[in-house]
Amino acid sequence: MVDRLFGWLMSGCAALVVSLLLWVLGDVLIEGVAHFSWSFLFTEPEDSGRSGGIAPILVSTLWILSIALVTALPLGLGVAVWLSEFAAGRRRFSDIARVTLDILAGVPSIVYGLFGNAFFSIYLGLGFSLLSGGLTLALMILPVFVRTCESGLRAVNDEWRRGALALGMARSAAIWHILLPAARPAIGAGLVLGIGRATAETAALVFTSGYVDRMPESPLDSGRALAVHIYDLSMNVTGGDSAAYASALVLVVLIVLLNTLAQSLLEDWFKRRVFVS
Amino acid sequence: MSWIAKGIVNRTDHRLSMMLAVLSAGAALLLTLIVLFLIKESWPFLSSRWHSGSWFDWLQYQGWYPQENRFGMAPMLLASLAVTLGALIVALPVGLASAIYLQFYANPKVARTFRLLLTLLAGVPSVVFGLWGLTRIVPLIALWQPPGASLLAAILVLSLMVLPTIALTSAAALASVSGELLHGGIALGMRRKTQILHIMLPAARSNIFGGVLLATARALGETMAVLMVAGNVVQFPAGLFDPVRVLTANIALEMSYAMGDHRASLFASGLLLTAMVWLLSWGSYRVTRNGREAGQYG
Question: N or C: which end of chain B has fewer CB within 10 A?
């Protein structure tokens, strides 16, 4: 009897969680679809966003995201490879690096925003621009990306390394042709985490890439990210809630789409590396 | 450079190794720069407090009136802690129960769907939770105890946000417990409830605790969702229905126009947040390491 009650209690909690989560997602979906139309994606916002669309905001979001990814991916992958493949002789240094990265991964995004404002916007003179916003986000996703890729590379069986060595492969060739493809699930997971965090970020962008909702002409222009747009519509614009929900729907769909795209690109790229070359 | 060249004969390898070392050093430098800049920017505030002998004034109540040079951060610090603690108190039992359901009661198909839903929810941006809280939770609370935007609203929204994290990490912790323990419990004829509460949970406790500490760090650093539903009045949180302002929200609200000492004080509060997160990650590192050393039977 007690046993069955306990089982019911656990299932009840799970059901509660599921219904709450469905409530949130359902609300975003229903309220979002009510205001959404295809022209919403391709027109400029009017009446401070109450009507019109989100075209310039989407463009700014994609700018910021691509700057962040283009900076963070090569840098992060390089650091991860170095930590797992070359730093073996420097145990102490790589341990310190790992702990530092873990701490930085937990630092609140708003603190990255403070740094981005002081360093990129003011010290380097980039001002409120898509570039300083993107670079700030690159720094923000770097620690998580490095740590996931590194643990993925570390998890690759040492047999593969010895096999490559026995075949007389150069270490760089072994990394490029064997280790990186073998670690691809971890790299994919790191990429998904990075894209998710960068696309969802609001706090760090308000005072690095700014608030302007015009179409950006270059990365040095200020631009408003989608998440900032949602915040502005719901907090500062009375009657902006339905447009905010539509933007929220676009944001959630965008994150899911980008993640799927990133995963399949990665799969594709590595498949070619393994089987053709 | 012998340590780099050790075991590397190929020339391309040598070049690659050098390049990656430089890259890593650059990344390390950038990340150090973050802490250095936080200290540099908050220095005017810290040193002027030091010289006037009022270094600990920010801890005592003197109000947050930046224009009058009074920077009492204590109410906001307390509000941050209250919101975080409240969210954990709500989310921990429910999250743990969901993990137990996922691990021991759900059939594989249901478990997969549940897990997928949790992962999806863990990826929903915090502004979306904020928007939802502002249009659904706040009006609900306002019906009962106006104005609605309150400590309670922040706790509820935040607990919903950390729930997926707690459930997923706890489920992973439970899954990593050796099956032998469970089989032993079954062989002894224990009830399902006893197996779970007295064998599996204690065996997984250090990993569960590590996950909870990470969720705490996330809750403490959350800005947007809390800013949108908490009401943002600087005051000591006296009751669940009082509007409060947390440290992170304060930075987001005032950074755009802050100058001089005011700006420096915001950087100082960023430094404070970083220190708190640092303590939490250190705690979680210690806890999970001790758990590993003590073994699963600890």
Answer: N
**How far B56 CA sits from the closest chain A CA (Å)?**
22
Contacts A255 to B, Cβ<8 Å: 123, 125
Is the Cβ pair A6, B252 closer than 8 Å?
no
Total tally of structural domains belonging to chain B: 2
Instruction: For residues B21 and B96, state if they share a domain.
Output: no
pLDDT tens across the length of chain B (298 residues): 333 334 556 788 888 888 888 888 888 888 788 888 889 988 888 887 777 766 666 666 567 777 777 777 888 888 999 999 999 999 999 999 999 999 888 888 998 899 888 888 888 899 999 999 999 889 888 888 778 888 999 999 999 999 998 999 999 999 888 888 888 888 998 888 888 888 888 888 888 888 888 889 889 988 888 999 988 888 888 888 888 899 899 998 888 888 888 888 899 889 889 888 888 877 777 777 766 555 444 3
Q: Which structural domain, as residue segments, surrounds residue B168? A: 74-294
- State the CATH number of the domain containing residue B148: 1.10.3720.10
A20 CB near a chain B CB, below 8 Å? yes
What does the DSSP 8-state code read for residue A51?
E
Residue A18 falls inside a structural domain: no
Q: Which domain CATH number covers A185?
A: 1.10.3720.10
| Residue A2 falls inside a structural domain | no
Q: Is residue A132 within 8 Å of residue A126, measured between CB atoms? A: yes
Q: d(Cα B73, Cα B56) in Å, to the nearest integer?
A: 10
Contact A170 B12 (CB under 8 A): yes
Residue B170 domain flag: yes
Of B101, B136, B273, the CB nearest to A10: B101
Residue recorded with tokens 């050796």: B178
Token pair in block for residue A155: 């998890």
Q: What share of chain A is helix, strand, coil (3-state, %, to 5)?
A: 80, 0, 20
Pair B285, B207: CB distance under 8 Å: no
Shortest Cα distance, chain A CAs vs residue B249, angstroms: 9
On whether both B35 and B80 belong to a single domain, the answer is no
Tell me: ipTM over 0.95: no
What is chain B's alpha carbon radius of gyration, rounded to the nearest angstrom? 24
Asked if B98's CB is within 8 angstroms of A172's CB, the reply is no
On whether residue A20 sits in a domain, the answer given is: no
Query: Per-residue b/e over B198-221, b at no fewer than 16 CB within 10 Å?
Result: ebbbebbebbbbbbbbbbbbbbbb
Q: Which residues of A touch B287 (CB under 8 A)?
A: none
Taking contacts as CB-CB distances below 8 angstroms, the residues of chain B near A248 are 125, 127-128, 131
Q: What is the pLDDT of residues A97-154, one digit of tens each?
A: 777 888 888 888 999 999 999 999 989 988 899 999 999 999 999 998 998 898 888 8
Three-state SS for A46?
strand
Does residue B151 sit within a domain?
A: yes
Domain assignment present for residue A185? The answer is yes
Check CB contact under 8 Å for B228 and A83. Answer: no
Q: In this structure, is residue B237 part of a structural domain?
A: yes
Q: Is A122 on the interface with B (CB under 8 A)?
A: no
Structural domain count, chain A: 1
Which residues in chain A have Cβ-Cβ distances shorter than 8 Å to B273?
107-108, 110-111
Which residue range is the domain that position A193 belongs to? Answer: 36-275
Is residue B267 situated within a structural domain? yes
Three-class DSSP category at B52: coil
